[in-house]
Amino acid sequence: MRDFSNRYIFVFSTVMIVIVAVLLSSAAMLLQPLQKKNIELEKKQSILASIHVEVPRKEADKVFEKYITSSFVVNAQGEKVEGVDAFNVDMAAEIRNPVEERKLPVYIATLDDGSKKIIVPLRGKGLWGPIYGYISFDDDYNTVFGATFAHDKETPGLGAEIATKQFQKQFTGKKIFDENGNFTSIRVVKGGAPAGDPHGVDAISGGTLTSKGLEAMLRDCLSGYVAYFKKQQEQK
Question: What is the 3-state secondary structure (H, E, C) of the chain?
Answer without folding.
Answer: CCCCCHHHHHHHHHHHHHHHHHHHHHHHHHHHHHHHHHHHHHHHHHHHHCCCCCCCHHHHHHHHHHHEEEEEEECCCCCEECCCCHHHCCHHHHCCCCHHHCCEEEEEEECCCCCEEEEEEEEEECCCCEEEEEEEECCCCCEEEEEEEEECCCCCCCHHHHHCHHHHHHHCCCECECCCCCECCCEEECCCCCCCCCCEEECCCCCHHHHHHHHHHHHHHHHCCHHHHHHHHHHC
